[in-house]
């Protein structure tokens, strides 16, 4: 078992006690992206995460909200990861990026090349992609607009598996 560090990426397979809306969104995202992951959040400290959640504004959550997860870490120094996390946290209060999710669905599932990026709203994976780019100038996925999926992050060469996380 390994410990978690700030900005570790929590890949969510299943939430603990999901609402009916959560179950619908989880199933839709997994179907659209052909992935076992429906959501990502970012480890802050202790039991605290930061996320863009479909049914509330971007903000803090609890690691214990997730029942089944995998974890990856950015291949940057701890100092750079801390700065990236601070950039992610600056989105607190932002609305969810439904336009990004709809574009992702059309592109991934139906092959329609639609891209969408609203600079004032965010979806979960987009938070990391944009924060890394702002901090380092590097795009960690091929997708540079806001419509990034958890699977896009999972496949990024800039993230490495850290084993089974202990929390």
Short description:
The protein is of the alpha+beta class. The protein has helices at 20-33, 78-89, 98-110, 124-136, 150-154, and strands spanning 9-15, 39-45, 48-51, 59-62, 66-74, 159-161. 34% of the residues lie in helices and 20% in strands.
Task: Explain the overall architecture.
The longest helix has 14 residues, at 20-33. The model has no long low-confidence stretch (mean pLDDT 91). Helix content is 34%, strand content 20%. The chain is built from 5 helices and 6 strands, in the order βαββββααααβ. The N and C termini lie close together (9 Å). A 6-stranded antiparallel β-sheet has the order 4-3-2-1-5-6. A hairpin with a 7-residue loop joins β3 (48-51) and β4. The chain is globular, with a radius of gyration of 14 Å. The protein has one domain: Alpha-Beta Complex (endopeptidase fold (from Nostoc punctiforme)), CATH 3.90.1720. The protein has 167 residues and is an alpha+beta fold.
């Amino acid at each position: 078992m390994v410990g978690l560090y700030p900005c570790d990426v929590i890949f969510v397979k299943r939430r603990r006690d999901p609402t009916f809306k959560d179950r619908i969104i989880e199933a839709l995202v997994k179907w659209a992206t052909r992935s076992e992951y429906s959501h990502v959040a970012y480890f802050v400290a202790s039991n605290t995460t930061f996320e863009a959640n479909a049914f509330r504004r971007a903000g803090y959550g609890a690691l214990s909200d997730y029942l089944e997860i995998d974890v990856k870490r950015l291949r940057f120094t701890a100092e750079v990861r801390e700065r990236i996390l601070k950039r992610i946290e600056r989105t607190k209060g932002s609305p969810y990026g439904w336009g990004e999710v709809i574009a992702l669905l059309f592109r991934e599932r139906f092959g329609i090349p639609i891209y969408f990026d609203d600079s004032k709203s965010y979806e979960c994976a987009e938070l990391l992609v944009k924060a890394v780019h702002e901090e380092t100038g590097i795009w960690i996925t091929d997708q540079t607009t806001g419509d990034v999926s958890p699977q896009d992050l999972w496949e990024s060469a800039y993230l490495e598996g850290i084993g089974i996380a202990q929390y």
